[in-house]
Fold this protein.
Amino acid sequence: MKYAFPDNFWWGSASSALQTEGAREGETTWDYWFAREPNRFHNGVGPQQTSTFYQHWKTDIQLLKQLNHNSFRTSISWARLIPDGIGEVNPEAVDFYHQVIDELNEQGITPFITLFHFDMPMAMQAIGGWENREVVDAYARYAQICFELFGDRVLHWFTFNEPIVPVEGGYLYDFHYPNVVDFRRAATVAYHTVLAHAKAVQAYRAGHYAGEIGIVLNLTPSYPRSQNPADVKAAHIADLMFNRSFLDPVLRGEYPADLVALLKAYDQLPACKPEDSALIAEGKIDLLGVNYYQPRRVKCRDSAVNPQAPFMPEWFFDNYDMPGRKMNPYRGWEIYAPGIYDILVNLRDNYGNPRCFISENGMGVENEQRFIENGQINDKYRIEFISEHLTWLHKGISEGCNCLGYHMWTFIDNWSWCNAYKNRYGFIQLDVETQQRTIKKSGEWFAATALNNRFEQE
């Protein structure tokens, strides 16, 4: 079978400032946390040990060109640009991002720029982070500065990457700083993130820039164990909390009524101001980035909730281990390519078929050196993973879904939060000691696919 994609389809990959740049001046929550609890990080490897994009940006962009990228998403580091979050702009950071953006454009690689990819300036976290509306205003100022500096050459902007993750990690499940377990505070963080997003969209519209603005959401389709009403309801609540809590505000300009009713019933609603709803309505986006890695399979709870336990999403569902599912054993995630199609069909049928693209999809594998043949990693498992997902993506497009591109996570093996370099995701192998870059088989495959705008599946 041959799978051809529409003309001008976006082929590329995604990365982030904090995971690639290194050599930072401004302290982030990650730097602060690592200095205090290095044991929480795989092999004690912290956020200073990156793939050194700050030094190697020019040759790295040449590698992007070699892989036939026509687009590439990365982020601006708020802490690099404005080290204390609210004060003076760092001129060295401005020069760096000017150079990166100009070089990408010169090489025919369209820059897609994210404003916030988990890297809160520590000075902002110290006053409460997203729990504090002052930080919402500081972020809106930061966004406006970025638009003014780079908006003439960046035509695709994203306010946040995966905004549900800092909510889950920092305020529910203890895998990001500040390691709080408190649903109401989590709801406040999520709500203020939506307000911050809307303020950035408002600033972008007011500036009459030539491009478009959106957000990147990691969507995890919620599949019920069965069609039993209790299982269906469990999946619906998981979907409300983890997907629609951001999807509905940014595409419909309002929250799902049943999510609001649920949180109200349990006294978990954040504090709202009368003017907030009009602001949220102004935050509707032009372009949705969809990060898809795995589905969420749920069933109704089998046991009663401990009334003394903290209120959590899992009061309403249990995770379900579906028999026979295909797993990535290194990450502990299910591999389910049809999920990418189901997301697109949901967007088409229930959200007015917005302009969207797959902004991340990827497979992390441990100890890839096992697969070196003639000096190159033969990661045929990654080629199989990508082609399976592209097959289902192609089906969605052929059925009218408005998907404009596919970006892989990631371009070069990079530092990955608490996992450091445990799992490798890149098209290009990174030797952490020498910083040498070597293209993997998947990189060659992707370069050919992007060049031809098609691939063949046996």
Remarks:
- The two ends are 6 Å apart (CA to CA).
